[in-house]
Amino acid sequence: MLRSSTWTQALAAARTQVPLLLVLTSAALATACKTGPDLSTDYGQTARENYELATGEFEDRDWDEAIAYADFVRIRFPFSRYAVEAELLVARAEFAQANYLTAQDGFKQFYKLHPTHKHVQNGWCAYMAAVSAYMNAPEGMALLPPHYQRDQAQLQEALVELAYFFDHYSGSSLEPFALKLRDEIKRRLLEHELYVARFYLDRDVPEAAIGRLENAHKNYPGIGLDAEVLFLLGLTYLRMDEVELSRSTFSELQSQHPRHHHGRQARLYLKYIYKTFGPADPNRKRPDRSPPRPVSPPRPKLKDTEPEKQPKDRGKPQSSRAAGSL
Questions:
Q1: Average pLDDT over residues 305-311
Q2: Is pTM beyond 0.85 here?
Q3: Which of 5, 180, 231, 252 has the fewest Cβ atoms nearer than 10 Å?
């Protein structure tokens, strides 16, 4: 899967772009405790000693202890140069544990706070923030809906992170990896757009599908699904009586993808359009596609707020005439 390859690329970049500053000494390895460092016995006396312990635990894939030692360096020795390296080590350990949201925040905070660091200047931290956002996006699993039916907010956020990378670090050695990641993110977003468009088309609501398809045609070209997008777009235009737009869309599909099965279908639709509506007519009347205007609810009728008038003779004794009749 491409997602797995992206994970491999990210880890490879982590190893090649962020070499460990120090090698773990045998004495430090002997003092490491796998059940968590103890303040009185396991922590070193200096920032360097504790950072070496942190890097050693990181190499041993003991992420929790690596974070514990690195946090100790950051808190106990905040002005040491090892405190800066410890911050980056924490973000890497969170990424390795698949805590991608925490890792993303860690990489973003690092490149904002330490702009002169070499792994900020070469774009590695910005790239890893984008990878973390991508890895945090939902993935299709058993008993769960496929990824294109689920929330795409994290993929959108990964695109934002990549836009920052390309704005600040274009031309770096990591740009080829970032381009591949951007293509994969756009492919998954395009699959989501097509899924939503088909959902509306199956329910005979082409007006709701057309926006998705026009957005897909404009924003996600060259992903490998262009023929699918053009075919659905031309079909939706035809269902909306947008005859000339449908004709031009099917013509584009036929010319750009003549060997694709949708390209062959486009020829049939072009024949149908010509037979039914005649030759192209740029002055053909188009349907009204303006959004419907909301109708204001009727105003409630005003009720009479005056107090009910009481009869003048209520509460008074009967007249003498009525009394005489008794």
A1: 56
A2: no
A3: 5
